[in-house]
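hey so u asked for the seq, here:
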Amino acid sequence: MNPLLQATLRRLAAHYEDAMVEEVALNRPGEVWVKMAGGAWQARSDSELTEDYLLRLCHQLANVSGQVFHPQRMPILYATLPEGHRFTAVVGAGVRYAMGDSRGVAVNVRVFDPGRRITLDRYGLAAKTSLTAAPHRPGQRRYDESPLEDLLAAVANREALLISGATSTGKTTFLNAILGYLSAEHRVVTVEDAREVVVPHANRVHLVVSRTETANGMDFMRIVDAVVRMTPDVIICGEIGIANAPGVFRLMTTGHTNFMATIHASSPEAALRAFYQNLAQSNPGIDAAAAVDIIGSAFGRIVQIDRLGTRRLVTAIDIPRLASDAIGGIDR
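ran it, structure tokens below
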């Protein structure tokens, strides 16, 4: 770790170094909210976490990761802390806490713990249920009446997987658990904006692309061009948003069907709709009819995860229909 950054981080790290901490949030300087594993948010006070301190930390993280950060010109920072934790900060006029505020600072740290392994049975998939939908199109099939066995068979047969859910429902944790069922001989390539996926395979490479402006000019589309030339057996695309939707879409059109990704959505149909909306925002002139057909036929399974109290449960596993059926209103 960079010694200067290590020294600066020490104050903030005091709030997330406990093994039971899942997340730390600062809505404003000095006010700390800590979320423990399986529990509720707890409020703390820390007068040393001043605005000057948080801005200094952001500048150091940006310098270490080769990003541009400025309170006025680039007031958003996405970074990965040396321990692997996901760091997000928004500063300046875009943050207000009280009605009379003119600017502020908001920081969030999502804790990464590779030792915190959760097995698939924790998501309610151990027993036979009726979660898996029936095939909608020629070539689709259901492998087993058990949703767990069906899902694992779909993954083994190189069908693309989309994991859907709201924030903190455990999408990435579920993806990490799924990777443990892949053949140990697979070559796995990940493309993320922050390192979160834990790949147990020896033959692996992790590519990281910042969501904000970077010094080297690399974006998701350029990285995807490199990925398809690396001969991956499985590509992990991370979370689908506006920035990387075109890159994931490109994978769909280049014959690389064995990929996995996550997305923020409340249902399998909403997941397809969210993918298309992200794609359309970054590509306003895209052919809607062709795009929805490609999206609808690309994914073998869509897994929906919801949080019910303190439990995270799989509430649906869909074999997706055409995306146009889910999106609706598309001029075909």
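Residues 3-110 form a domain with the Beta-Lactamase fold (CATH 3.30.450.90). The radius of gyration is 21 Å.
lmk if thats what u needed
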